[in-house]
Amino acid sequence: MDIKHGDNFFFIEKNGETIAKISYQFENDDIIIANSTYVDPSLRGQGIAKKLLDRLVEYARENNLKIRPLCSYVVDAFERNGQYDDVKV
Predict the structure, then answer these.
(1) Which CATH superfamily is domain 4-84 in?
(2) pLDDT tens digits for 32-60?
(3) Predicted pLDDT at 81
(4) Rounded to an integer, what distance in angstroms lies between the CA atom of residue 43 and that of residue 5?
(5) Phi, psi torsion values for 58, nearest 5 degrees
(6) At 3, is the secondary structure helix, strand, or coil?
(7) Taking 80 as the threshold, does the pLDDT of residue 23 lie above it?
């Protein structure tokens, strides 16, 4: 699945419809807030949310940004997995 970047979100489309999305907003020049994750019910349990989060983390690393997790999925992922420690606020 191709993950695209929109204005303050990464998303996956199918037939022109967004079927999965992780959104963020800038807190300041160095920190983004991961505020929402959505995956269509037909895709849940397939690791789609993790792929979106990994793409957001990649974006943060590429741009020397930190991520403040607000979305419950991102909060849980950051607590469970040390691979995101370098970007976590």
Answers:
(1) Gcn5-related N-acetyltransferase (GNAT) (3.40.630.30)
(2) 999 999 999 999 999 999 999 999 999 99
(3) 82
(4) 19
(5) -60, -45
(6) coil
(7) yes
DSSP 77: H
Each domain of the chain, given as residue ranges in start order, spans: 4-84
Pick from 64, 66, 79: nearest CA to 32: 66
Strand runs labelled E in 1-89? 4-6, 9-14, 17-26, 31-39, 66-69
52 and 12 in contact (C-beta within 8 Å)?
yes
Task: Look at the chain and count its residues.
Answer: 89
Q: Which run of H or of E encompasses 57?
A: helix 48-62
Token pair belonging to 72: 């419950």
**Continuous segment of H or E residues that includes residue 75:** helix 72-80
